[in-house]
Amino acid sequence: MAISVLELEEGKTAKIIGIQGGHGMQNQLRSIGILEGKDIVVVTHHPFKGPVVVKIDRKMISLGRGLASRIMVEMTS
Amino acid sequence: MGNPNVGKSVVFSRLTGTHVITSNFPGTTVDYSQGATCLGRERVFIIDAPGTYSLDPTNPAEEVSLRILNEADIVVNVIDATNLERNLILTLELLSRNVPLLVVLNLWDEAAHTGIEIDVSRLQELLGVPVIPTVAVTGEGIAELASYFSQDVPVPEQKNYSDQEKWVMIGQITREVQTITHRHHTLRDLISDITIKPITGLPVAVLVILVSLWTVIFIGETCITYLTDPLFELYLPIITQLSDFIGPGFVQQVLIGQMVNGGIDFEQSMGILTTGLYVPFGIVLPYVIVFYILAALLEDSGYLPRLATLTDTFFHRLGMHGYGIVPVFLGLGCNVPGILATRVLETRKQRFIAATLIAISIPCMAKTAMIFGTIGQFGFLYILLVIAVLAVVYITIGMILSRVIHGECPEIFLEIPPYRTPRLNMVLKKTWMRLVAFIAEAVPYLFLGVLLVNILYATGFLAWLGTVLAPLIVSWLGLPKEASGALLTGFLRKDLAIGMLLPLDMTPQQMVVAVTTLTMYFPCAGAFAVLYRELGFSGMIKSVIVMATTAFFVGGIMRFILIGV
Touching check for B309 and chain A: CB below 8 Å? Predict the structure, then answer.
């Protein structure tokens, strides 16, 4: 089941299956290490439409909600 | 060149001996720095490029990098050994550029520490260019790197990959050269988690900010009492003799100022050589030094990106994102570096909002000293009132500007580095450099400001303008007409305005209105100069219009609430 990182619960791990958006957006996200096939963990969702903090390969990244909603993931039970 | 926050600037300063500011948060180097080093008989010029993730520029810093790249003879690509996969994207793009390339594998010690092992010789084979592991902060590997400059660095075989192929290549290379050994959760991870989650992170952030401000005020005051005040005591007889030597007249008025109770008063005389020296060096400098040390500690430890994430929810509503905290924080020391730091924001709109808001409602150390000096006598509650008004203005104007101004507001998108123990020499070096910049960029304008005010004052221009504007100040702000002179002086010298407001015998409410208006309506001459530099002429004019309108309305509203009709 594909959901966006925005909907991924805190502490859950999922596999990135795609990035929605234009070429520029895809490159921007990939260049910081958000790549298809990677495992992604949500460290925390900040309340009141705040940013989402994720962890990929031990690296922590802060993402705005718009960006987080474009990263599609699949739960890896 | 390389990704943000991989230590390019440290490698650069190791190579050249030049001092460059380095921080544990991405985007510190926006301007490039240039340095030279001697190798044998040859001089080699080295340029430190701003961090970039790719050769498709997405912000001004990356555009600068790209320009530098096009002119280079040899490109040194610094990559973060703890983050190989991501850094290789830029490396592959550089490989397709047909320039001699050296790859520096920096943060080698940190990689080993976190359990990452990289097979350097295999990486070298796969990339087809020399790879040099370094620990730039200690200097390990730098000599080896420098030795390559005198050799012919081969131009790598040009390979053009499509985007998709690049990612596949990177995946292959990483799998082949990198072994990650599992590592247990450390205390560092725990602290990292605590400081990023909102429930625990926000209280920690509030605590960190309060403790920082308290430290600045406490140590700053101590320095003033025991260090700068005694120094100025020694200076007093010298300047008094000079004053007697000059004798009364225009020159004395400009250089020494007025006598208070028959002698020179450093706070109230307002001459260039009296108040003009005392305020920047005697009062502001001690606070600024302590402030910069703390700022450097927060940067180097890696706390700032966490603070940026925690405050993003707030700043996003004002058209900026979490990075907006960086200029605000530096602006509390002095608005000049604060406004310069708005470059960490991506778009023109964001930078305009950030710079204007700093100029309006972030009191620098000089303004803070003014607020305390004038209102402190009435009690802490009145000071709190001024601060609360400034905060409300910051938020309101930010929300209005973010809706009114055209342009994009990119969201926060930033890597949070691991905590690192700040190195004392780096912290001191950075503090020193910022201090030199402060003295070189802000202090001359302060002097110019005093000079101008004194001339205007001595020629009677200020008195004339004061009478012209007096009705407005009396009827709209509810202040005595003498206050208009102080408000006008404050146009160039906020600190001088204190001395002029104090003898007016105003009520606490009037003082609050006067000081708040004074704080908001115009920045000092130094801040003006950087606003012009950062926003351009039309941007600066717009910013000034926002400031003046805000001060006028807020001052009026406060008057009606506090003083009545």
Answer: yes
